[in-house]
Amino acid sequence: RRVAILVSGGGSNMVALVKSMTGDHPARPVLVLANSADAGGLVRARELGVEADHVDHRPFKGDRPAFEDALHARLLQAEPDILCLAGFMRVLTEGFVSRWQGRMLNIHPSLLPKYRGLHTHARALEAGETEHGCTVHEVTPELDEGPILGQARVPVLPGDTPDLLAARVLEQEHRLYPAVLRRFAAGDRSRIDLAA
Ligand code: GRF
């Protein structure tokens, strides 16, 4: 299976995914694609020997479908079977999702269905949660809504700040996403739950 990974920032999840796709793993990374030229993940992808490119979203300001057409066209060149959104910070419309649905995964830093959207760690702390975590799900047109393929949980500790909690969750993201991708690439969509 051919996997393309979409990133916006440093790409630590992308690195974990790329490093997991070795040996008898059913998938290989064929492209890392960012929405800006200065995404740190592009440098890290090239260091790992993976083709990396970007489609800048800014020239398409206000015309989201046009940006998504450019993104789609670039992806088709790599002929991926699976898309992994990994710290990809652009909302994708129904138009794009419908062309990849069933073959597109995302990782979200909360225990969905709790805390869809942004600033999940601060919101969990404000709500007094004693547990938090991350979720890998299939991408559907509804933001952070699709079928859950895996979750990993972490404790919220006394004195936690959003940054401390985010770091604890990120560690689990790097375990969960590769575990889910390995199964998904082998055709297994059964849900997994990792304890910290
Ligand atoms: C992190 O906040 C992570 O929780 C979320 O996207 C952000 C960047 O991740 N998935 P990455 O280091 O670019 O993979």
Automatic annotation (TrEMBL):
Keywords: Purine biosynthesis, Transferase
Annotated residues for binding of N(1)-(5-phospho-beta-D-ribosyl)glycinamide: G11, S12, N13
Residue span(s) of domain Formyl transferase N-terminal: 2-181
InterPro entries: Formyl_transf_N (IPR002376), Formyl_transf_N_sf (IPR036477), GART (IPR004607)
Catalytic reactions on record: N(1)-(5-phospho-beta-D-ribosyl)glycinamide + (6R)-10-formyltetrahydrofolate = N(2)-formyl-N(1)-(5-phospho-beta-D-ribosyl)glycinamide + (6S)-5,6,7,8-tetrahydrofolate + H(+)
Pathway(s) of this molecule: Purine metabolism; IMP biosynthesis via de novo pathway; N(2)-formyl-N(1)-(5-phospho-D-ribosyl)glycinamide from N(1)-(5-phospho-D-ribosyl)glycinamide (10-formyl THF route): step 1/1
Amino-acid positions noted as binding (6R)-10-formyltetrahydrofolate in the UniProt annotation, renumbered to this chain: R64, N106
Pfam families the record matches: Formyl_trans_N
Keyword Transferase: yes
Keyword Cell wall biogenesis/degradation: no
Site (Raises pKa of active site His): D144
This enzyme's EC code(s): 2.1.2.2
GO MF annotation: an example: phosphoribosylglycinamide formyltransferase activity
Active site: H108 (proton donor)
Family: Belongs to the GART family.
Function according to Swiss-Prot or TrEMBL: Catalyzes the transfer of a formyl group from 10-formyltetrahydrofolate to 5-phospho-ribosyl-glycinamide (GAR), producing 5-phospho-ribosyl-N-formylglycinamide (FGAR) and tetrahydrofolate.
Name of the protein: Phosphoribosylglycinamide formyltransferase
Natural source organism: Litorisediminicola beolgyonensis
